[in-house]
Write a structure and sequence with these properties.
This protein is mainly α. 45% of the residues lie in helices and 0% in strands. Helix 2 packs across helix 6 and helix 4 packs across helix 6. It is globular, with a radius of gyration of 15 Å.
């Protein structure tokens, strides 16, 4: 039992490191798939989806002024958008948080997930760059 817990923790740590190694420039291109509904950067506003400034490390369902679905609010209770959670959600939003209102089918390529998370991670909550 202890071995499987340690192995799981090691795998999670390796996954998190791998996600942090995405390509920001490529992530900017991937984000274009998201830009119809989400905004990021200086002056970002909520659209169909919430603005994405400071998403990495932000509490789930916490953007002021955005009306989240009950499913997302329930899912988000006490959770933070870390790289692993973002990766799972962005890969398959409908199955990761059933009954959420995001219509996007997801990013199916692991490199696109890493890249878009790296791109988003460069933004502070106020839209400035880190």
């Amino acid at each position: 039992m202890k071995l499987s817990i340690a192995a799981g923790a090691a795998l999670l740590a390796l996954t998190t490191v791998a996600l942090a190694e995405g390509d920001v420039a490529k992530g900017e291109k991937v984000f274009k798939k998201c830009a119809a509904c989400h905004d990021v950067g200086a002056g970002a506003k909520n659209k169909v989806g919430p603005e994405m400034n400071g998403i990495v490390g932000r509490a789930v369902a916490s953007v002021e002024g955005f009306k989240y679905s009950p499913a997302m609010t329930e899912f988000g209770a006490g959770k933070v958008w870390d790289e692993a959670t973002l990766s799972g959600y962005l890969a398959d939003p409908k199955n990761f948080v059933p009954k959420n209102k995001m219509a996007f089918v997801g990013l199916k390529k692991e490199d696109e997930l890493k890249d878009v998370i790296a791109y988003l991670a460069q933004y502070n909550a106020d839209g400035s760059m880190k």
